[in-house]
Amino acid sequence: MTKIKPIKPFEPIVTEIIPNDDNWIGQVKWDGTRILVYSSDNNIQIFNRNLNERSKQYPELMTPQVYSNTKNFIIDGEVIAFKDGVPSFYEVMKRDKIKNIEKNKELIEITPIVYMVFDLLSINNKWITTLPLIERQKILKEMIIPNSHIQVVENFSDTEALFDACIENDLEGAVFKDLNSTYIINGKDNRWLKKKKNQDIVAIVGGVTIKGSLVKSLHLGLYNEKKQLVYIGSVGTGKLTKEDWQQFTVAINSFIQVNSPFENFASKDSVWLEPIITVKVHFLEWINGKKLRHPVIEAFVSINPEECKFIFD
To answer: What is the CATH number of the domain that holds 210?
Structure first.
């Protein structure tokens, strides 16, 4: 089996202004996890945006002959899972953390996924990233055979109406793309834009507050330009269940340390942790540029802590 060398995908940048020129389209921003599927005649592997393999986590995508009329391709999209009819990052993270498929077959049935494909990077062993998006999309639609686990993301020409509809339907937001844009591997520029209903961020857990025998809140931080961990707030509400809190309380025993890892925060009531655990949180806004207003826990995530830093420093 040929070992695949995964690539980092093209990323959108945050925008406050919705583009509405004729060459721009909008797509729903699904609250899921970015996934690329690499398929060839003799091999198929799945990787996330951080180059971590996820082939075991999403067996629904491991049979390309079911959803594609070619076996040789690289496609880009987002894996989502639903809760009460709405895409839920917390639900998809349940699937993303599966290690042993045989022991978790029930979870796969309980939490089905849908792969929302929005781009095609290579087909029949030929890279097509230099083609404009409109042409890549045309080839993608001809290649994909939609089913209950894989769909091609729809384009909307009325970008403002799309964003309004996303907000009204409690979706995460929208992505806007220039139809003339090429695809830059490990790139990020303003030909792809994103606008969200709520802001979200992946932060480092540098400490916790324990009440009784259970963790009750997380102390969060980001690295500044001096590589110092800066405290940005604490959070104890969100989508974690009592079982999640119990498991997390046990898991942190291996990471407890004596001193605060934060450059600007210490508390005698806190338990300090090595800054290696990361969590995704939603929040309303930044307060004075350095604190989160009304943060809410979405899920623990597998992100390199070194990537958790202020983007406005």
So the answer is: 2.40.50.140
